[in-house]
Amino acid sequence: MTRYFPTLRGWIAFLLAAFAILFFTAICPARIVRSGVGTFLIEPASPTVRLTGAALVVVCFFASAEAFRRGSRADKIFACISVLLTIALLVEFLQLFILTIDQSPNKSPEPTAVGAFRSAVAVHAASRRWLSFLR
Predict the structure, then answer these.
(1) What is the pTM of this model?
(2) CB 3.0 to 4.6 Å from 86: which of 3, 52, 60, 128, for a disulfide?
(3) What does the alpha-carbon distance between residue 85 and residue 79 come to, in Å, rounded to a whole number?
């Protein structure tokens, strides 16, 4: 029965990759996703975040390789799952270098005089259409 369960190698590879992807997404800067425009980072990633991400990717790949190379069949299955999680971690890590930083200006929440006038005209025109429809 124990041959169907992974040994310590398989568990370490799997849990290390699962922890790494959750930890790395927690320490990364936030992302902004705008429809039709793209995805941006709110702030640049610090060198500590980049170094931590690189170390996590390397350690996870080595743990997966060790579990696959010297483990049982169950260890190899867990190593394959660990490699998939590590590839997802690698994609998150490489997005730090690809995504640009958001440079949009801060927009004021209060409406301007022109915007308020346009809204009033639109409401007035819409109410006249409904009133003419009811006649």
Answers:
(1) 0.70
(2) 60
(3) 10
